[in-house]
Write a structure and sequence with these properties.
Elements lengths: L1 H14 L9 E6 H14 L5 E5 L6 H10 L2 E4 L2 H9 L7 E3 L6 H10 L4 E4 L2 H4 L9 E7 L21 E2 L3 H10 L2 E5 L9 H24 L8 E3 L16 H12 L7 E4 L3 H4 L3 E13 L2 E6 L7 H5 L6 E5 L10 E7 L8 E9 L6 E5 L19 E6 L4 E6 L6
Parallel strand pairs: 1-17, 2-3, 2-10, 3-4, 4-5, 5-6, 6-7, 6-8, 8-9, 9-10, 12-14
Antiparallel strand pairs: 1-11, 11-12, 11-16, 13-16, 14-15, 17-18
Helix pairs in contact: 7-8, 8-9
Bound molecules: pyridoxal-5'-phosphate.
């Protein structure tokens, strides 16, 4: 589906002369696909769930505004992201502030300027920095200490993880809930979780802790209660073909089955890559096609600066497609090429042995499914400019530049 949209977009970009000579690459945001994922997420969970989409996954200001206009909240991993959330127009109660290194100054800033924001502390030490009467909703991040099948780079639930207080320290957690004005419990078990049973079990642990905490609060004649459970994000990207059978739906259904009373708490989610992965794509001009020994290399203008995770870790399944200089898809015989980025280090390859149809200098190469953790991870390495970004409403045949090419110097 994004294939057809990409074909239309490149032709339109060329026909409308949206590119200058120095625009050797362009990044595209599909509004229709983003809406499909936001709508499906909304449908999977109960109506009063607060979906705070992780800003880091795609922090483009227009994307954040779109999410806020849709009615969702935003999860901020830094005070800068909190300010971006504010600029996007979201109300404080829909911002979740999750940085593991909040300074006293940042906490005070929330206290003075952002009443109602949801602030999740990461440690007992951070709790000591919280004002006695917070103006914000105070949460604590719990580490469920479970294997949810995340790749090691994104696994935050190991017992030595830097994120959250291990659930094994339950008594200390209960004591802290008695002592501090905590009303929210949080977890984010890891990204690209593949073991559904463990992901659900993590939420169950959080739920049971909340139940026990509320009982202890009642026993101690304290009227405060844990009111909200923030279950984080972490589902891998998926193509939404038969929507009833989606991983997201299975996850939501499994949660409902395992925890039928989950809804007595205000539920919060923080999905990132599941929402964005299939909503972005990009095009680069092919600068050179060279032969090196047995290898054929295609050199393009987007590499580890844009797809940092793919170059430094492993390719995440970005798809490639060649187009002629005037934007017509090439369908000829395919041969294998390594796709090299523009940065000056040996690891800057987006993929090796990729089948491409007759790439030539001046052609365009589409990079499909680049919507998550790409634009937001733009690297300064080699100081190349961030390309122009266009927003595409394919269904209504509308396209507009949402940010100009940006120099880093
Ligand atoms: C606290 C927190 N919440 C949510 C997310 C989003 O995760 P994902 O993109 O895997 O859904 C992250 C990602 O790192 C995170 O650290």
């Amino acid at each position: 589906m994004i294939d057809k949209e990409a074909d239309w977009t490149l032709k339109k970009v060329i026909d409308l002369n949206l590119l200058c000579e120095e625009d050797t690459a362009i990044i595209c945001q599909s509004w229709n696909n983003l809406d499909r994922y936001l709508n499906h997420l909304k449908d999977c969970f109960s109506k009063n769930t607060l979906h705070a989409i992780a800003i880091k996954t795609n922090p483009h200001p227009e994307v954040l505004k779109h999410i806020v206009n849709f009615g969702f909240g935003l999860e901020a991993a830094s005070i800068e992201e909190v300010l971006m959330a504010k600029s996007a127009g979201v109300t404080n109660d829909k911002i979740v502030f999750d940085s593991p290194v909040k300074t006293r100054r940042e906490i005070n800033f929330c206290q003075e300027n952002l009443p109602g924001i949801r602030l999740n502390v990461n440690s007992f030490d951070e709790l000591k920095r919280i004002p006695e009467h917070p103006n914000f909703i105070l949460g604590v991040r719990i580490n469920p200490v479970l294997d949810v099948g995340s790749p090691s780079l994104y696994n935050v639930s190991a017992d030595e993880s830097k994120f959250g207080i291990p659930i094994s320290e339950k008594q200390d957690l209960l004591n802290a809930i008695l002592e501090y004005p905590i009303t929210q419990l949080h977890l984010h078990s890891g990204s690209s979780m593949v073991i559904m049973k463990s992901s659900v079990l993590a939420v169950e642990k959080l739920y049971k802790l909340a139940e026990e905490a509320n009982q202890v609060l009642a026993e101690n004649k304290i009227s405060r209660r844990i009111e909200s459970l923030d279950i984080g994000g972490g589902l891998p990207p998926e193509v939404l073909d038969s929507e009833s059978n989606s991983i997201m739906n299975k996850y939501a259904e499994a949660l409902k089955k395992q925890l039928p009373n989950l809804e007595k708490f205000q539920l919060i989610t923080e999905f990132g890559q599941w929402v964005h992965f299939y909503s972005g794509y990009a095009f680069s001009q092919i600068e050179y096609v060279l032969k090196r020994g047995e290898k054929k290399l295609v050199y393009i203008h987007l590499g580890a600066d844009y797809l940092l995770r793919d170059a430094y870790s492993k390719p995440r399944g970005i798809a490639f497609k060649t187009y002629s200089q005037n934007g017509i898809p090439k369908n000829g015989i395919q041969k294998k090429y390594d796709i090299a980025g523009p940065l000056c280090f040996a690891g800057d390859y987006l993929v090796k042995n990729e089948n491409l149809s007759k790439p030539q200098e001046g052609d365009w190469l589409a990079l499909l499914n680049t919507g998550s953790n790409s634009f937001g991870l733009w690297s300064r390495h080699c100081s190349r400019s961030i390309p122009k970004v266009v927003g595409v409403d394919f269904e209504n045949e509308k396209i507009e530049i949402i940010s100009e090419r940006k120099n880093l110097f």
